[in-house]
Description:
Blueprint: H1 5-12, E1 20-32, E2 36-40, E3 45-51, E4 53-56, E5 68-70, E6 73-75, E7 80-83, E8 91-97, E9 117-121, E10 130-133, E11 139-142, E12 148-160
Amino acid sequence: MRKFLPIVMLLMAAPAHADLTHRLSSSVQLQVNSAATQATRIGSSYSVSGNGVDTTDGTTANTISAGTITSGVMSPGTISATQDSPGSAFSYAATYTQADAVPTSAPTVGAVGNFGTMTSNAAGVAGDLAGTISTAGAMSITAGGAGTSAIGQFSSELIIK
């Protein structure tokens, strides 16, 4: 009887309960970029500072600027400084940054415009751009032309609770 006890216990044991989930997924992303141009226009700036000097634009004493603005670009004019007391200490500084001219038309992709900062990219070319994933998970990704990208992904998930 003792010999049959382990067999009887196995037959009476409760069945194992387990949840098993298996997921397979695959994806391919193919991208062809469009043409793009990004530009930043630099504006004019003009600064004069001094101590112990008088300024003139050539016609009026103590005048800082008789400048003009054409096509969005400032021309400050000619400024001269005269020392208040000859032989005394003085300081004088003038700075000028010329602006980018205001364009009359939109930029053409690939062409360099009249801007201080400009980035231009031509449109992508699909060419041979392709991607496939077989049911076995084997990937085949083929590069396209400039301005393209291809991404392939295969994932297998096994959950045992």
